[in-house]
From TrEMBL, chain A:
<feature type="transmembrane region" description="Helical">
    <location>
        <begin position="20"/>
        <end position="45"/>
    </location>
</feature>
<feature type="transmembrane region" description="Helical">
    <location>
        <begin position="192"/>
        <end position="215"/>
    </location>
</feature>
<keyword id="KW-0472">Membrane</keyword>
<dbReference type="InterPro" id="IPR043429">
    <property type="entry name" value="ArtM/GltK/GlnP/TcyL/YhdX-like"/>
</dbReference>
<keyword id="KW-0812">Transmembrane</keyword>
<keyword id="KW-0813">Transport</keyword>
<keyword id="KW-1133">Transmembrane helix</keyword>
<dbReference type="InterPro" id="IPR000515">
    <property type="entry name" value="MetI-like"/>
</dbReference>
<feature type="domain" description="ABC transmembrane type-1">
    <location>
        <begin position="18"/>
        <end position="211"/>
    </location>
</feature>
TrEMBL record, chain B:
<feature type="transmembrane region" description="Helical">
    <location>
        <begin position="123"/>
        <end position="144"/>
    </location>
</feature>
<feature type="transmembrane region" description="Helical">
    <location>
        <begin position="20"/>
        <end position="46"/>
    </location>
</feature>
<dbReference type="Pfam" id="PF00528">
    <property type="entry name" value="BPD_transp_1"/>
</dbReference>
<comment type="similarity">
    <text>Belongs to the binding-protein-dependent transport system permease family. HisMQ subfamily.</text>
</comment>
<protein>
    <submittedName>
        <fullName>Amino acid ABC transporter permease</fullName>
    </submittedName>
</protein>
<keyword id="KW-0812">Transmembrane</keyword>
<feature type="domain" description="ABC transmembrane type-1">
    <location>
        <begin position="18"/>
        <end position="205"/>
    </location>
</feature>
<keyword id="KW-0472">Membrane</keyword>
<feature type="transmembrane region" description="Helical">
    <location>
        <begin position="184"/>
        <end position="206"/>
    </location>
</feature>
Length: 221, 216
């Protein structure tokens, strides 16, 4: 039943390349989070306004991002834009897809967080003479980010896990891509993907630990 | 004029793929709900003893689903299990769903105030009666939105099984794209099908949630 010899020694020789891939994965996820948070903030504000077009765009974005698979979103960006003559690299398609997805999910988190910021805070800020933009920038957003900090770190882990989808649109320098490259060369599927799984696990744990540490440092009072 | 190579047969092919997606979701959720319920109760009632279980389930939540599919698929070949790719998809998705549902159930059970359980025990209910008649009905109301979210999440994650060679909705659309070379149209139709499926599940869930709230 069990006539398979595991070859860990040969597999471990690929570790430096895979670590480089892990760094690309982390970078991509971090970038997508930065853009995602910015877009999500804009979407949150757009969904709060009374302007019907802005509201429509905000609600449409969130509901499409949340109701279709992220792989589908990456596909649309990679193959769909390609058919319109706009050729994007697989890395860019991946980044844009994850950012789109992140922004949708984060906007929903932010909406919940915004409800948790007392309305009196805005009025107090406005009555102190701040403009609406100032009130948002200096009063609302800092409190909002504090409330959604843990969902944010969760979403960061999600973003890292989502970068593994890049391999399906042909990305070959992130962790999964590098692993797949070695896999098709050697057919040691189980060994290589086990190492990749361990690396992903470590990245996820590192993010969670960093978030804990940051929360402890930042929210002390 | 707008002309397309997309025919009715292609639409049927896509709907067939959607059917596979639904089947996968169904089996995975069935497995995930059952296992998650057991694990979640264990986690909530015996927090110390089931700590190793939490570590194991945490692994499934921190490793990309795609890699879990590949790993399990190759493990299946190594061990010599003779099961179809569809079963592999169901099992991996089911375990993945169980890992998430465990936390949801645990949160639900812990949300039932301890005083309430003490009150029920002091009224003469046994441990299992208390669990059956007091804790579970209250916990299910707390856990239901989370469960619904999980169903929607799993439905979207079924798209990844294409990597181990199952023709579901997204893979079906890919097959059609390679033939008629109109990716935007075909992908939009596939996306619309996903969107409608998610929306229907979400609406049904919201209705059920409202019905349950009536008696509270």
């Amino acid at each position: 039943m069990f006539d398979y010899t595991f070859q860990w020694r040969a597999t471990l020789r690929a570790l430096p390349d895979m670590l480089a891939g892990a760094w690309v994965t982390f970078e991509t996820a971090a970038l997508s989070m930065i853009f995602g948070v910015l877009i999500a903030l804009a979407l949150t504000v757009m969904r709060e306004t009374r302007h019907p077009l802005l509201r429509g765009i905000g609600n449409g974005w969130v509901s499409i991002a949340r109701n279709t698979p992220s792989l589908f979103q990456i596909y649309i960006l990679y193959f769909g834009l390609g058919s319109m003559g706009l050729h994007v690299s697989s890395w860019l398609a991946l980044l844009a897809g994850i950012t789109f997805n992140n922004a949708g999910y984060l906007a929903e988190n932010f909406r919940g967080g915004l409800k948790a910021v007392p309305g009196t805070q805005v009025r107090a800020a406005r009555s102190l003479g701040m403009s609406a933009f100032q009130a948002y920038r200096m009063i609302i957003v800092p409190q909002l980010l504090r409330i959604v900090f843990y969902p944010l770190s969760n979403q960061m882990v999600w973003a890292v896990l989502m970068t593994s989808l890049g391999v399906i649109v042909g990305l070959n320098n992130d962790l999964t891509g590098v692993t797949q490259d070695y896999n098709v060369k050697t057919f040691r599927t189980f060994e290589y993907f086990t190492i990749a799984a361990v690396l992903y696990y470590l990245i996820a744990k590192a993010i969670v630990a960093t978030a804990r540490l940051m929360a402890w440092r930042l929210f002390r009072y | 004029m707008f002309s397309t190579g997309f025919s009715w047969n292609d639409l049927l092919f896509l709907l067939n793929g959607a059917w596979i997606t639904l089947q996968l979701t169904c089996w995975a959720i069935l497995l995930g709900t059952f296992a998650g319920l057991v694990f979640g109760l264990l986690r909530a009632l015996l927090p110390r003893a089931s700590l190793p279980l939490a570590w194991v389930l945490d692994v499934f939540r921190s490793v990309p689903l795609l890699i879990q599919f590949v790993l399990f698929n190759s493990l299946k070949s190594i061990v010599g299990l003779n099961i179809s790719a569809f079963s592999v998809g169901c099992i991996v998705l089911g375990v993945y769903a169980a890992a998430y549902f465990t936390e949801i159930v645990r949160g639900g059970v812990l949300s039932v105030p301890l005083t309430l359980r003490r009150a029920s025990r002091s009224l003469g209910l046994s441990f299992f009666q208390d669990l059956r008649w007091i804790v579970l009905p209250m916990a299910s109301r707390v856990a239901f939105p989370g469960w619904l979210n999980l169903v929607l999440g799993v439905m979207k994650d079924t798209a990844l099984v294409m990597w181990i060679g199952i023709v579901e909705l997204l893979r079906a659309s890919q097959t059609i794209v390679t033939r008629i070379q109109e990716p935007l149209l075909v992908l939009c139709i596939a996306g619309l099908i996903y969107y409608v499926m998610s929306l229907v599940v979400a609406r049904l869930g919201a209705r059920l949630e409202r019905r349950w709230q009536e008696n509270d």
